[in-house]
Design brief:
The chain has 19 helices and 13 strands. By secondary structure, the protein is α/β, with parallel strands linked by helices. Strand 1, helix 2 and strand 2 form a beta-alpha-beta unit. The longest helix has 19 residues.
């Protein structure tokens, strides 16, 4: 497998945690008294994860009566990350496990600890951005489980139709649309800083454009050679400052919450909301009658050629090298099943899709139009992964800094400089070279 800039970026995270070789291998047998092969499957203990895992196991066992799958759970977050590394280091990992893709996957030292799966037929169905975040230069290690989501501009289609507006592909076009919307007495851009995390989308959702303009940006950023105070990364902060200064925000932007933003975009109280497309489930629950009134497009770049949909890729399912013999054969069957039509059916029924899939799975015909809008960018190849899938570095104070920029407290340059300082501290804590 040839080395690509994306894969080289991902490999930068692999050295963060050097895990020891497993100390003890699991039994190669795995047979039970009734002749079945028994394997274990580990997922996070969130209710939605557990429900989806149970549905997956039931469907798999129906098609594979000679294999029994036992579900195990553990916490997510930092605690879960540490447990994963410990289990792999001590040879105590379950036979199959569900975990992050991207930089956190690389921190597991996959070449040393995981089973390569690139000989499996389903790997050819992965989109390129998904392959990159579950691979090293040596091979593919994970199968996607769940759908993608994007950080983008959710917009009200009725407002666009009423005002005769076109989907913008450049920032200047987006600004012109906002001025027309403002002149019509409608809030052009919804901001909800009462939930501070929502303030980050002008920066995080712009990363697909940054990568289009500078394909080496993530790799160089991880090495300490790219900064947010410089273009093209500064643009996300600059756009947020421009929006505030132009008076595009809703009057209560400082206290409004995510649920308020979802309501406003659905009902047409505002025209645009830069947010994650997972918002579709909130609108479906709270404003079902308006669900088809919302669509999505990427945060526009300065140059239309650089405008890409920034995508958060799904987690994946992996097999540790301690799984051997009959258990390994059963584990590979289990992983492959997740990529079949039956496995896709489980994902469409037991999970709520927040975007297109990263494999051969297809969205149901009755999904909201917002997800169909996203599919176009996938089909055209106009997507790039979010930075967190290409680099382990994300400063913890970004949401507070973007609140400052979006509230006129700090300029774009000041905010970017603050974030660069924030990033240095985290990179040093991770022990990365060049920092």
């Amino acid at each position: 497998m040839k080395s690509s800039p994306t894969r080289r970026v991902l490999l930068a995270g692999a050295g963060i945690v050097a895990l020891a070789l497993p100390l003890a291998a699991c039994s190669g047998g795995g047979g039970s008294d009734d002749g079945k092969v028994e394997i274990t499957y580990l997922t996070q203990n969130a209710e939605a994860n557990v429900a989806a895992a149970k549905a997956l196991i039931e469907a798999f066992e129906d098609e594979n009566p000679d294999i029994s799958v036992k579900l195990e759970t553990q916490p997510a977050g930092t605690e879960g990350d540490n447990l994963m590394k410990t289990k792999l280091a001590t040879g105590e990992m379950e036979d199959v496990f569900h975990y992050n893709s991207g930089s956190l996957f690389q921190a597991l030292n996959p070449d040393q600890n995981l089973v390569r799966l690139d000989d499996q037929d389903w790997t050819g169905d992965l989109i390129d951005t998904m392959t990159a975040v579950v691979s090293t230069d040596n091979g593919v290690y994970g199968a996607p489980w769940g759908a993608t989501q994007a950080g983008a501009v959710v917009y009200n289609k009725k407002i666009y139709a009423d005002l005769g507006l076109e989907i913008p592909t450049t920032w200047d076009e987006f600004a012109a649309n906002n001025e027309a919307i403002k002149a019509a007495g409608i809030t052009p851009v919804i901001q909800t800083y009462g939930d501070t995390w929502t303030s980050q989308l002008f920066v995080l959702g712009d990363f697909g454009n940054v990568l289009a303009a500078d394909p080496d940006w993530a790799e160089e950023y991880t090495a300490g050679n790219r900064k947010y105070v410089d273009e093209p990364a500064l643009e996300g902060f600059a756009n947020q400052q421009a929006g505030f200064e132009a008076g595009w925000w809703n009057e209560d932007f400082g206290s409004a919450l995510f649920d308020d933003g979802a309501r406003m975009i659905a009902t047409g109280e505002g025209a645009h909301y830069p947010i994650l497309t997972g918002i579709v489930s909130t609108i479906a629950q709270n404003n079902p009658d308006e669900l088809e009134d919302v669509g999505v497009f990427p945060l526009p770049a300065q140059d239309a050629a650089d405008t890409k949909l920034t995508v958060w890729l799904p987690n994946a399912i992996y097999i540790p090298k301690t799984t051997e013999g009959d258990k390994l054969d059963a584990a590979k069957k289990f992983v492959a099943f997740t990529q079949t039509e039956a496995g896709c059916d489980v994902q469409n029924t037991a999970m709520v899709p927040s975007g297109p899939y990263a494999n051969a799975c297809t969205l149901p015909d009755d999904v909201p139009g917002l997800l169909k809008d996203m599919q176009v960018y996938f089909d055209e190849g106009n997507t790039n992964p979010a930075l967190e899938f290409l680099s382990p570095i994300k400063g913890p104070n970004l949401e507070n800094i973007t609140v400052q920029v979006g509230s006129g407290i700090s300029s774009a340059e000041e905010g970017a400089a603050l974030y660069d300082e924030d990033v240095v501290k985290q990179a040093q804590q991770l022990g990365l070279e060049g920092w």
